Every structure is written in C-alpha cells, then in structure tokens.
Amino acid sequence: MRKAWTAGSAAALVIGAAMWLATSVGAQGGGTIEAEVKYNGAPKVEKLKVNKDTQQCGTETEIDHVMVGANKGLANAVVSVPDAKGAAKAKAVVDQHGCKFVPHVVVMQPGELDVKNSDGILHNLHTYSTANPSINKAQPKFKKVMTEKLEKPEFVKLTCDVHSWMLGWVAVVPGLAAATDANGVAKIDNVPAGKHKVEVWHEQLGKMEKDVDVKAGQVTKVSFEMKGK
Amino acid sequence: MRATEALARGALLIALLAPPAAAWAQAGDANAGKAVYERKCAGCHGDKGDGKGPAAEELSPPPRDFTRGIYKIRSTANKVASDQDVFNVITNGMPGTTMPSWKMLPDRDRWNLVAYLKTFAPEVFKEAPKKLELPKEVASSEASIKRGKEMFEAIECNKCHGAEGRADGPSRPELKDEWGHPIAPANLTKRWNFRGGSSRTDIATRLAAGVLGTPMPAFLDAVEKPEDIWHLTNYIVSLGPDRPALATLVTVSAASGAIPDDPTAEFWKKQTPSYIPLMGQVIQDPRNFNPAIDLVAVRAAYDDKQIVFHLTWDDPTESKGDGKQTFPDAISLQFPPQITASTERPYFLMGDDSDAVYLLRWQQGKGVGEATASGPAKIAALDGGETSGQAVYANGQYRLVMRRPLAGKGESRPTFRPAVFTPVAFQAWDGGAGETGAKMSLTSWYYLRLEEPQSNRRFVIPPVVTILTLAAMILVVRAVNRAR
User: Fold this and answer.
1) What is this structure's pTM?
2) Are A76 and A102 in contact (CB under 8 A)?
C-alpha cells in the first residue's frame, strides 16, 4: 500500500517537472501569431433610442453586431490556438458600463469570470449557453462584482433583460486566444514553436481555421477573410 | 407476549418512518405517462413535447416546450426542476395562463406524466435537482414591509414590475423569454395570478431562484442581506389581496353631499368597491383569447339628479393608439335601454338586432359619451346627452369617473330608480395590447341597485321599539306582582 503511494507521488513529481519544463521551454522558445481578420461586407450596427436610465445609458445607443474598421479589419473576432496551452495573464473581467458590456467580447480560459457593474443601476446577467449552465442573476446597484464560473469551452452570449440592447460575448477557449482590435488585428504571444491550428470565430460570421507553423522568437502572420453568412 | 409487543412496536416504527405515499409515487412510469400525455397534453404541448400542439398558436403565454427541460417554476438551486415541482404545476395548473389544474387526474397518472415529460429533455434531467435553501423566514410586520419596500426600490423591481407593482415598468415592452416570445412581467398586486402560486414560500422561492426561461433573474445573492428575500416577500404580499372578493351586485350609494368628478378624491376611497371579473370575448370574430383586462373595481353614487360611476382597472400602458397595432384604451357600462320588471334582457354581447343596449362609455382621447348598440359592430353614438367625467392614469392604473342624469332622455337611455334591480354589464379594451372592436374583455349581465335613500327614521324607530318593549315588560312584571 505504502509502496504504491510512494510510486504514485514519484510519478506525479516527474509529470509535474516535465510539465514545468514544457511550459518554460514553450515560453522561452515560443513565437508570436499575428492574425489579421478581414471582412468584405458592410458593418452591422443597430442604433436605437433609450427610454430609461438615460443618465447612465445615454439617450441613444447601438448594438454592435459587426464592426468593420480600417482596411476592412473585423473587430471583436476571437482568434485562438486551441492546442497551445498557457496560463491566462489575468482574471477575465467584463464590465457593465454605459449599459454596454465592455469589452464586447471577453476572451478567457475555462474558469472564473468577474462581472462588474460600474453603472450603479440594476442589470441582470442573463447568459445563453449549452455547455455551461445558463445564468440569470440580478446585479443591483450595490453589487459591484459577481464572480461566475464558466468551465466548459464555449462562446457564451451575454444579455441584460432590463436593457434589452445590451449584448456581449464570452469566448471560453481552452488554448491561447485574443480578440481582434478595431483594425481586425489580434496578437497571441508565447505560442510554442511548431505546427498549430488557428481558429477564428465571430458572433455573426461564424468560424474559420488555418494551419500555421510558428517559429521560436518570430512573428508568424496569418490572415483570414470572413465571409458573410 | 413480549415478542408480539416488540413486533407491534417495530411495525409502528416502520410505519412512522415510512415516507409519505407521494414519495413512493414519485417513480412514475414514463410509458404509462405517454398515454396520458397524448390524451390530455399533446393538444397544446405537441406530440413531440415542443410546445407546438394544434392549439398552441392562439395561446399567450405559449405552451411550454419541454424539449429544453426549462421549467419556470422550480424550488431548486440549480437549473433542474424537481419531480415535485413538475408534479405541482400539473396539479395546480398555472394561474393567469391557459394551463389548467389537472387535479382530476389520479395521482398515479400525474406522476407518470412527470416521468414522461422528463424524457423530452434527458440531458437536463441527468443532473440531480439541488434543493434551494431559503434564508430563515421573517414574519410579516410593519417594519418588515417597510424594509421590503426599501429593497424593492434599491434592487429596482420597478424596472419591469412598475413602481407600484402593476407590471408597467419601462422595460416591459422589451421583455422576451428564452424562445424570443414577448413576455409580460407579473402584476404584483394580483397575487392570485402568480404562475407558481401565491403563498409566501412560493413568492420567496421565485425571488430567490428566479423564473427560468424568463427575464426574471435570481435575487438570492442580489439583496443586501439574505433575509431581505423575506422582507421583499412581505412587501409584495402587502400590495394586494390574496384574491379579490368578487361581487355579484353593484350597490350605488345615496350621496348626501356633492359627488366629486376627481377620481382621486377622498370621497371615492371611502366607497366600498365591487370587484367584477372580465373574460375575453370569444363568441364573435375577432376573438380575444388573451384578454389584457381581467378585473374592474366599481364604485358608484347617486343623488336626486344624477348617477356617478367610478371605475378602477389596471392597464400597463396609457394608449391613445396608432390605429395600426395599438388603439385607444376604452371601457363601457352597458344597460338595457329601458329598465323594466321583466327578466328578459338584451343579448349580453352588446345586444342584437331585436334588442339594443345602451352604453355609457369612455375612450382615451375622447372622454365620456353615450351610445346605442345592437352588436359589437353596430354601435351608434347618442348625442345630446348630459354626460361628463374625468380619467386619471398613473402607475399602470386607470381611475375614471363617469356622470350622467338619473333620468334618461328618449327611448334609448334608461332611467335609474332606487331599489330596482338594474341589469348592468361591462366591457373593456386595452388598446395598447391591440384590443379594439369585438376584441375586448367583457362580462355577462350583473345587477346594479341604487340603495334607498337613508331616512332619519332609523334613528327614531329602534329607540321607540326599545322603550315600548321595556314599558311592556315593566307592565307585565307589575301585573304579575299584583296578582300575587
């Protein structure tokens, strides 16, 4: 019995050491993926008038379904390398600010998400998901932060029923990932050298994937052109 | 002897420890449930349990789609309803919706149905339901209700339910359920329509766990202190009666002074209301299967010249109408054109070609007027009457005063007389919900009675009777004493 235990712990130690080695080597010997996501179609932004909480929400607002920046760059797309594991930089946070979810797309690894309410009015976090349990929790003005668990990889839609225009997404992805900026560019650092599959996802335009060969210490560029559905 | 006693004790112990019959029954048989489902449920909920039965189209809220395993009414901390939750909904129905109570089915059948419903969403029911633990109960008191009101305002229940709980909050028009259907918030002053029951525990549970598949979120972690769930519950309970005491007769009181036009006047608050329930008009096209207005509170007073009606009803939107999807809000009182001793009354649905009715009505934007009708599509305004009135709309509620002379001018207007049982019926339209014309809420005939003017004789006759009785008693006692 004791022997088995010793052997087990020894094995665990070896595996642990190997993993530490692997990650540190990956970090040192990793490369960067710079993904450029383009969209040829027209942006889709819904404008509407606000009938309540105008102090916080303004009198007009918009729902950003498809945002296209300079050079047809597609914002709010999620670029991920599912097989490249790495520690998350910081805890994922989404804020409810100006009656919008900020950022529009949060990228996180399976785990915890902090949901802030800096508006100081009632919001209700209502998620639409299948892999993770759906959430519908009130977050009144005095509840500044709620912590929610999203443990399964999935693209989770965030809504608020009090302010029906509020729309956000949480990309729960197992590997390294980033969302594109206003110009459609996303950078992923510390990708282990070697061949990887790079995926891109957009809430309205769906998914694409490409193979890349990442070289240590170099920036590997990859570009996607999303097609309208 | 000892052995038998021990045996008897053992048997008693077993009997005491045995779970109640219901717990045994919980293991329903899905196959047997299927047979019941197909006979009783599929008409609305569909053969596949997707809520798309042949009758579904007309129903609002729509019948439940069981394939997603989302149950509104649950007493669990996770997303899975317990068997008992599903059983309770089948047993009690869903007040305020078209889902009736199925109490008439044997228990066995209902448990079998529970088992069968679960087979529509096997993935969801793989997870075991987790019992929701409510905070320690706080009894209702003035202080608790006050705290509940504070919390109601702090957590902004008004956003959907309205400042006074009449479902008129600013987010109301935007609300959708998980299937994308528009959904109305609950009117918190009409507890008897709460889908999941109106007991304090029911209300606290809905607050704590939310209503799944709807915008109503869970508030258990969203109040300042856990017991606030109970303060809120106590406040909500204070907003309205358990259920309205429905009237069978409207009494018109005899007023000694002026009868005010202002619907908010103290005079009207002192009058006892008669609560009249309304139903959707489903006899003629276009039918109204989902009436918006289900209750009118009627107060009335008269003097020697005029009769004045005061009506109160809930309507979440004050609507003047765009003429396409929305219409002006309206209400009318209906009487026979002549009040006779005959028991024959015109057809309750606004009369017909042989017998017309008289309408005293109010419409948003137009005010009070009179009309004669021989059916919902044959209404003609009566001009030259001396009607007046005033309406006030606030916090999801109309209050209206309508005034007219006691004596009716001409053949089409009734004359009101004290102590006569006068037929009366009601019709109401929530124009904001698209109600107009035959699409209305209505009642059949009720009776209205003008109470006889109270004379001062009631202050004279009883004392006189008392004195005479006393005198008679004294005389008798004396006579008896003398006879001795």
Assistant:
1) 0.85
2) no
